[in-house]
Amino acid sequence: MQGTVRSPAVHSVFYSLSFYYQQCYLKRGGGAIHINVLYVDDEPALLEITKIFLERFDEMDVSTAECVQTGLEMLRDHHYDIVISDYQMPVHDGIQFLKAVRAEFDDLPFILFTGKGREAVAIEALNYGADYYVQKGVDVESQFAELSHKIRLAVGKRLTENRLTESERRLREMMDHVDILSLQLDRDGKITYANTFAAKTLGCSISDLMGRDFFSEFVPQKGASDHKQMFTKIMLTGKLTGETLAMLRSRNGSEHTIKFRNSLIRDRQGKVIGMSNVGEDVTDLLKAQEERDVLVDVVSSVQVEFYIFDVHDLHFYYANDAALSNWGITAEEIVGLTPKDIPISLDEGELRKMLDALLQGERTALVFETERRRADGTIYPTEVHLQLFDNGRKRMFIAVAHDITERKRLQSEIKMSELRYRGLVENFYGMVYVSELDSKYLSQAYGQTEYITGYGAAEFENREITWTELVHPDDLHVVLDEIKLIDADHSHVMNVEFRLMHKDGRMRWVKNNVRVVSTQGNPIVQGTMVDITSLKLAEEELQASNEELQAAEEELRQQLEELTDAEERTKVQEERFHNLFVSMNEGVALHKLMRNEKGEVCDYMLLDVNPSYERILELRREDVIGKASMNVYHVRAPYLEEYVKPMRTGEAHVFETYFPPMDKHFLISAVNLGRDQFATVFIDITESKRLEEELKSQMKGMQELLDLIPGWVFKKDTEGRYLAVNRKMLEEVHLPAEKVLGRTDLEIFPRDVGEVIMSYDRNFLEGDKEEISEESEHIAGNHRIINRISMRKQRDRDGKVRNLMAVLLDVTDIARAKDSLRVANRKLNLMASITRHDLSNHLQVMRGYIELAKKSSARSAYLDKISSEVDQMEKDVEFTRTYQGLGEDEPRWQRLEEVVDSVRGNVPEINVTVDVGDREVFADPMLKKVFYNLLDNSNRHGGKVRNVRIGTEADGQRLRIVYQDDGSGLSDEKRKALFSGEERAGSGHGMVYSKEVLGLTGMNISEEGAEGKGARFVITVPPAHHRVGSGPH
Questions:
Q1: Can you tell me whether residue 133 is helix, strand or coil?
Q2: Does a structural domain hold residue 844?
Q3: Residue 200 is part of a domain; what is its CATH number?
Q4: Edge-to-edge strand order for the sheet containing 395-403?
Q5: Which of 614, 719, 922, 929 could cross-link with 1025 by S-S, CB 3.0 to 4.6 Å?
């Protein structure tokens, strides 16, 4: 039985009983035993002659069927002891029939009886469960004798198997209902038996385990050799080692630890022939033990104090190494002690109160700080986490104590730092404030806040006043414009003067300096505000009095310089506080312009540089600070003109340059800091420049490669604009590159063509496929042109589609070669099939009737049947001659009405109505043979056909040519075999030929009629292969 696994003892019994039962079947006679046989073959003559030969044996009754479907229906309706089947049949062959029988009727005996002599067919049949394979041969008498013998053997064997299987099933059911692993190994360590639990553990089916080497396939490599040596020693000595632990590896990679109890298997002479192993999976048990040990080790080794004590008498159950070390006691000494015995700053009453809160459910956990004394007498602060553990069986307190000495130290330092910083800000003669980005409120305000605005710091922090209410309405737009610049670029610094509305109603002039800084990764606004009312009043006085202009100007300049110095001091304090200057990856340098005796800018001095400056330029800070640029870089004031630009415009200036002395490229940003001072921020882009040049070179080489492709290669963006094209495309559209790149198909091609192309592109971009490769076909004159378009989406790093790339190739010659090869292959296959299968069957039937004629006096009837077979052989040979010429001439345009008119006269018995208008199709010159075959088929097999109508109907862009007769129609079985060449009613080859003729130009034919309502053949014509009149449709 297929898939059955038996132990060695069961195998021995099986073969003995099998031989006995087979001998009983062979010796019985006189009609005592009846075998019901079902024989399926598509040749009626073979069915008839085989039935005659087999039923000469009285114990056999033979039923026949001409197709697989009928055979399956007969098996469902009647009982049969065995099935005999031909191999090559229409719709379903013998192997497919065998699969269906095995799927539905399990172990029903099956013999493949065929003329197919290939060894591969026999192997395939036996692999799928055929009992025997009998080849139809020249000696008819011996062939049927062999067939009848194999029938008896198969039926007898199956009866024996069924009885043994039932006994084995009962034993197996008992073994398969226990969660114990049971295996049997032969002397070589190969598995001969396994129960369900063993198969489940090893990740295989039972049948898949049979015959596999246990040690090499299911024991991990590390231990396989040792276990194999132990097993071999037991097989040689016959001495067991008792229980053993073995690690097994399943097919899915999981490993199981099994505790085995082993016993030896001996034959009748007492020789050891294998081992029986019964085992328990202890994987989970060992894993749980290991996890418990690991958990204990982890708790013991952590650097925090961990201890457990009783809820009643508070005696310690456990304390880890860190706790014991800090307390200065051992694990033995802790027995009988309680937390009260460990010196802490918490008194016993407070401890008892907290424990009671946990016991009474008032709190689920407690966190508190206390101080402890180590064994060496040092005091250290701790944070204790205490909670009650209750699993329904045991209640205990669990505590974890952290040494927070370092945390306390840091908190103290932070507090001192805050006090120093607050003192610095509050002594500042202006106002310092902080605000969230995009907020109209000031979250913090320090310094002379109330003096400048009239409002206290609390009023700002409580959001009682917005900063927009402070700005004079006429100056608000100036401030808002600067804020927009900050929003767009967080590196922008606001430095603006405006009128401020004091709380008492008076107006003050202030100078506001604002920048965005980062705190813990979050951007905030930080600003300073200085009262410059006196300066503004001084300006007005200067304008009113020309006589005091020079003295006032000097005084104002001094005041402005003092103000600038104050701003610079504030700026340095802020920058140092936030470590921004020293932490930037970009090189940063602060400079001051140097002037000659005439006041002209002649050089600049380096005031300060950051570590990135030193790293990028490989210059030390101490070697450049306070020196003129000429002495640092050894060339005359590098980029002085570039650095002066932001001093003139007040805006940052960014430029890219190559500095020969260092052989490096830089991207430099220069920013005006006021008072002839400026800052430069730069990055080394030398490597980027090199990669850019390499990329340009690669792109040039890629373009040259694309220009060698004999088709269109192009790249478009998602709007359909061409980004790149190759030379072939430019040559064929007759346009230079500048008139293609950046334009869409609507701007390059005629509007109707451009719309079709862009619609195709949109459908691809909006679809799910990442790439496509499709072929399209059109007719130019009497020639087919076939193009293949291959397209792929190009995505950015975020996965968004940015472009599409495509290649358009003319593959007409390749397609024509494939078509020619396909047609030639079909010709060879079909003609070989007819010659090998059909003629062989005709000869086989003829030999059978000759054999019967020799032994019968009624020879005339047998000779008539032989003559009929000879006529059919002549028709098959004539078909091969016609079929051989298929596809030798090129297709061309043909008017349908003329094609039908050219053949309708060959069948005068049928009235043909043609309603196709002025329709033309692009087809093989043998198209008229298709319509002749259809008319001939209706006349000979349609059942008194009198009328045929041929018309057309639209099917989207395709055309359907409908052929309808008023005959009896086709059955479902004949419809399935009609175009396969396997229909034996005499019409099959003609319809196969018709299908091949149509297929040469992409057309197809199908039969859509219903039995009893006439045949309805539909020929489907592709879009480019039909038209009205001489113009394309």
A1: strand
A2: no
A3: 3.30.450.20
A4: 316-319, 305-310, 395-403, 379-390, 365-373
A5: 922
Task: Look at residue 507 and tell me if it is in a domain.
Answer: yes
Q: CA 295, CA 302: separation in Å to the nearest integer?
A: 11
- DSSP-assigned states of every residue in 34-92: -EEEEEE-S-HHHHHHHHHHHTTSTTEEEEEESSHHHHHHHHHHS--SEEEE-SS-SSS
Same domain, 282 and 327: no
Amino acid 887: pLDDT: 55
CA distance 652 to 643: 10
Residues 901 and 980 in one domain: yes
Clarify whether residues 1023 and 904 are in a common domain: yes
Strand partners, 326: none
Spatial distance between the Cα atoms of 279 and 221, rounded to a whole number of angstroms: 20
Tokens of 125: 């049949």
Within 447-548, residue ranges assigned H as helices are 449-453, 457-461, 476-488, 533-544
Which residue type sits at 965? D
Same-domain check for residues 230 and 252? yes
* 965: nearest Cα among 1008, 890, 1011, 1016: 1016
Distance, in Å, from the CA atom of 861 to the CA atom of 853, rounded to the nearest integer, reads: 9
Of the candidates 265, 159, 15, 204, the one whose C-alpha atom is nearest the C-alpha of residue 6 is 15
Domain-terminating residue out of 157, 173, 189: 173
- As given in the structure block, the two tokens for residue 590 are 């602060």
Whole-number Å distance between alpha carbons of 446 and 418:
13
| 436 shares its domain with 534 | yes
Q: Is the pTM of this model over 0.70?
A: no
Measured between alpha carbons, how far is 600 from 597 in angstroms, rounded to an integer?
7
Specify the DSSP class assigned to residue 176: T
Q: According to the model, what pLDDT value does residue 872 have?
A: 59
Number of domains in the chain: 7
The pLDDT of residue 609 is 92
| Cα angle for residues 892, 898, 899 (degrees, 5° grid) | 65
In the Cβ-directed half-sphere of 404, how many Cα atoms lie within 13 Å? 16
Domain encompassing residue 208: 178-287
AA letter at 551:
A
Identify the residue whose tokens are 């195709």.
760
Q: What is the pLDDT of residue 32?
A: 46
Helix (H, G, I), strand (E, B) or coil at 604: strand
Structure-token match 């950051």, residue found: 610
User: Hey, which residues does 111 pair with through a beta bridge?
Assistant: 84, 132
* Grouped pLDDT means (10 residues each) for the chain, 1033 residues: 39 39 42 80 86 80 93 94 90 91 92 77 88 80 85 84 69 71 90 89 89 89 84 88 84 87 84 88 80 72 84 88 86 85 78 86 86 84 89 86 83 65 62 85 84 88 87 91 88 90 90 83 85 82 65 64 68 61 84 90 91 90 90 89 87 89 89 89 86 77 71 88 86 86 89 86 89 74 70 88 84 62 57 54 67 65 66 58 59 90 87 92 87 87 89 92 92 77 50 82 89 91 85 44
- Confidence at residue 108, expressed as pLDDT on a 0 to 100 scale: 93
Residue 193 backbone phi and psi in degrees, to 5: -155, 145
Structure tokens at 953: 């109907």
- What is the spatial distance between Cα 926 and Cα 550, in angstroms, rounded to a whole number? 113
- Name the burial class of residue 785, with classes exposed (0-12), middle (13-18) and buried (19+) by CB atoms within 10 angstroms of its CB: middle
**C-alpha 932 chain-centroid distance:** 53
- CA distances 812 to 756, 757, 808, 957, Å, are 22, 20, 12, 22
**Rounded to whole angstroms, how far apart are CA atoms 848 and 883?**
31
Same domain, 898 and 1003: yes
> Do 87 and 144 belong together in one domain?
yes
Question: What pLDDT, on a 0 to 100 scale, did the predictor assign at position 986?
Answer: 42
Residue 321 near residue 303 (C-beta atoms within 8 A): no
- Tokens (6 digits) for 140: 């008819």
Last residue of a domain, one of 649, 684, 719: 684
Please report whether residue 879 resides in a domain: no
User: In this structure, what token pair is assigned to residue 455?
Assistant: 């409002």
